[in-house]
Write a structure and sequence with these properties.
This protein is mainly alpha-helical. Helices cover 34% and strands 0% of the residues. GO terms for molecular function: oxidoreductase activity, acting on CH-OH group of donors.
């Protein structure tokens, strides 16, 4: 753990240096229904999808790597299937 500063009024930059570490798995910044639709397409942007941990509404628990990989695989298979139907 990084040392913490006694002064809570320090800058946001110092707060992040003190508290943000790679052991945390951040999620929820790209919420389904607000930033992406149910097919993970970015609202208002053509041909862009976000399929990663930022779309999680809740933490899947421990290391989310398997969950992210399965979400990516599921959506990849689904997208491929949809494209093959159009041919």
């Amino acid at each position: 753990m990084l040392p913490r500063h006694d002064n809570d009024s320090r800058s946001l930059e110092q707060y992040c240096k003190d508290t943000v570490m790679t052991i945390w798995h951040y999620h929820g910044g790209c919420q389904v229904g607000r930033v992406v639709d149910s097919e993970y397409r970015v609202l208002g942007v053509d041909a862009l999808r976000v399929i990663d941990g930022s779309t999680f509404n809740a933490s899947p628990g421990t290391n989310p790597q398997a969950t992210v990989m399965m979400l990516g695989r599921y959506m990849g298979v689904k997208i491929r299937s949809e494209r093959l139907k159009k041919l």
